[in-house]
Amino acid sequence: MNIQKSFTDAAKEGSGSLYLVATPIGNLEDMTFRAIRTLKEVQLIAAEDTRQTRKLLTHFEIGTRIVSYHEHNKRASGPELIRLLLEGQSIALVSDAGLPAISDPGADLVKEAIENNIPVIPVPGANAALSALIISGLPTERFLFAGFPPREKKSLTKWLMELQSEKGTLLFYESPHRINKTLAVLQEVLGDRQIACVRELTKRHEEAVRGRVTECMEWFEEHPPLGEFCIVVEGAEGIGASEQLLPEIWWSELDLEAHVAHYEEQYDRKEAIKRVAVDRGLPKRDVYNEVNR
How far apart are CA 180 and CA 9, in angstroms? Predict the structure, then answer.
């Protein structure tokens, strides 16, 4: 068990604190007064891309020393940062844009800090996924951030199938050169749900394309996508009963053997039989006996 009192533990134990500082996701005015003050007061800033962060520091006249911490050097840099924290230095962790430690190696540093009883303090600010969610027009009471989707179609299909029955609104990031392919697979697996494709958040060309998956696909065929996207997808709870059947219609004309063969393109035979049984509401043993006669 670990109990943290953010603003008293460090002074009591003699260690520094690890600050997770949000940076702008596009507009420099996304930066908060607290974030600027924190970056000025800490002894060290650990950045995902030092060149990008140095531009930010220069703009706000912050002279704090900066070091590199990213996916490829975290095994070497992480222990050194922990050592400095334990010696009493406070460190701010920043990503290229938005909140650090979300789908990036900062999460590993946070885990190590907690294991060493070092206070981890959030300095919140802009976040692309939540910003996209609140302007999407889709339900916000319950949602799931799924990060970055797989690139290969087979892996992407499996990834989306695992999200198929998620009741909350789905959020994930995608690049402009892959969005058309991703939307095509999304429509195939999840059906023609309501979505919002939001790009260039807080920048001059901020844009939200809202509609059915097929409508958005048509839009991007005529308007080539530019900029990094956050895709917001209606959850299973939000679609009507008739629409919930859409992902199942594809197998209605298949016999059991063909149905199993379809899933065997992505899974082993045992898993394929299991998924067919779930699709059809049949006992797994019955499906197994039928296709293995």
Answer: 49
Q: Is 195 exposed, middle or buried (0-12, 13-18, 19+ CB in 10 A)?
A: buried
Q: Whats the size of the chain, residue-wise?
A: 293
CATH number of 14-126: 3.40.1010.10
The domain 129-242 belongs to what CATH superfamily?
Tetrapyrrole methylase, C-terminal domain (3.30.950.10)
pTM to 2 decimals? 0.77
For the ranges 35-49, 106-120, 221-235, 272-286, which has the lowest average pLDDT?
Answer: 272-286
Start-to-end Cα distance in the chain: 54
* Residue written as token pair 């996924």: 129
H or E element, residue 61 = none
Decide if pLDDT at 246 tops 50: no
Place of tokens 């998924």: 275
The C-alpha atoms of residue 93 and residue 90 are separated, in whole angstroms, by: 10
**Do residues 125 and 32 lie in contact, with contact meaning Cβ atoms separated by under 8 Å?**
yes
State pLDDT tens for residues 127-174: 999 999 999 999 999 999 999 999 998 899 999 999 998 999 999 999
DSSP state of 19: E
Mean pLDDT of the chain: 90
- Domains of the chain, by residue range, sit at 14-126, 129-242, 251-291
List the alpha helices (DSSP H) in the chain. Answer: 9-13, 33-41, 50-59, 74-86, 106-115, 128-136, 153-163, 179-190, 213-222, 241-244, 246-249, 256-264, 269-280, 284-291
CA distance 16 to 2: 17
